[in-house]
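Quick one, tokens below:
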């Protein structure tokens, strides 16, 4: 099964989207009902400042709480428009920002940041000029506008329609910013919409009911229940704990002099996908097979190249005195629901 494929279906009653590359599951998006979706916008009410951190605890609807990292100048009781930036851990407040964006497949509207910008990934000057003309024909607002890289090669009418839709949404939400009670103003995008918005490369799209089973998605999802990831050159185990995600790399039966380096490079290439599919983030510690310091540089270069192509923001912190490698990964999605794995 060669090529790229986007499969939109449900697991039970839960909406999900899968991205397949040459028949192999490369990414999976699962909806979740127990926390606000990333991108959801709220009118929140400032509750209390967090001394020593400069942040502010916020009140959301239905008794939920949120944490705004930059709360300087805010006062308790003040309403504020905020947007969810990630997934909260159990018992912790929802992370939010006051820099609200209205993001779609082609356009991002940025209230409070005027200007018209085009993605730097679009380098053809004729294309940039055409996009600028499209934007100027439909966008007359004090807000800012960013045209995304997906605009290159896209239909100009669809781009214009997307700009108008995001501008209308921004104006409607901003009109509801004032008030004395917390309120949900947008619910955030579900997996199918996020797939349309973010998976913009050429791909076959499959939407019929039961497509997860037909395309082998469910079989590959079931493999996520195991900590072991087969690498071809050895294996690695990816195991979340309450404090961090522990990754252990093994050479297997290979006892050749190059076994350690081969297994470690294979793990470096496979790690972003393993974390992405499992929805794992936060602090990550990798115990690579023991190797020389010269080989460490090769492995670190491979890690940086692998995570550069990953859509989730990840900071490569570096090596510890004990030879472990540490990473910090943004919580943009929840861990894959374990109860779904049992049902598949």
């Amino acid at each position: 099964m060669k090529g790229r494929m986007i499969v939109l279906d449900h697991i039970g009653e839960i909406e999900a989207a899968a991205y397949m590359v040459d028949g192999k599951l490369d990414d999976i998006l699962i909806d979740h009902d127990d926390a606000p979706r990333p991108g959801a916008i709220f009118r929140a009410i400032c509750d209390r400042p967090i001394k020593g951190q400069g942040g502010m605890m916020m009140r959301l609807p239905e008794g939920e709480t949120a944490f705004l990292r930059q709360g300087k100048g805010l006062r308790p009781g003040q309403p504020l428009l905020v947007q969810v930036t990630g997934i909260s851990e159990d018992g912790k407040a929802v992370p939010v920002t006051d820099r609200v964006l209205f993001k779609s497949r082609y356009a991002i509207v940025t209230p409070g940041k005027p200007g018209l910008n085009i993605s730097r990934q679009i380098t053809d000057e004729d294309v940039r000029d055409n996009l600028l003309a499209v934007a100027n024909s439909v966008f007359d607002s004090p807000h800012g506008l960013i045209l995304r890289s997906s605009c290159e090669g896209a239909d100009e009418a669809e781009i214009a329609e997307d700009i108008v839709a995001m501008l209308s949404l921004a104006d409607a939400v901003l009109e509801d910013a004032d008030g004395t009670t917390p309120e949900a103003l947008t619910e955030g995008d579900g997996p199918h919409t996020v797939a349309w918005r973010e998976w913009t490369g050429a791909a076959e799209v499959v939407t019929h009911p039961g497509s997860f089973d037909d395309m082998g998605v469910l079989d590959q999802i079931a493999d996520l229940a195991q900590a072991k990831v087969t690498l071809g050159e050895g294996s690695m185990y990816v195991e979340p704990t309450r404090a961090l995600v522990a990754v252990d790399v093994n050479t297997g039966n290979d006892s050749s002099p190059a076994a350690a380096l081969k297994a470690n490079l294979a793990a470096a290439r496979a790690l972003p996908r393993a974390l992405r599919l499992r929805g794992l983030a936060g602090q990550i510690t990798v115990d690579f097979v023991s190797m020389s310091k010269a080989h460490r540089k090769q492995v670190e270069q491979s890690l940086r190249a692998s995570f550069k192509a990953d859509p989730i923001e990840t900071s490569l912190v570096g090596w510890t005195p004990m030879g472990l490698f540490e990473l910090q990964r943004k919580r943009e999605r929840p861990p894959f629901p374990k109860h779904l794995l049992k049902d598949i």
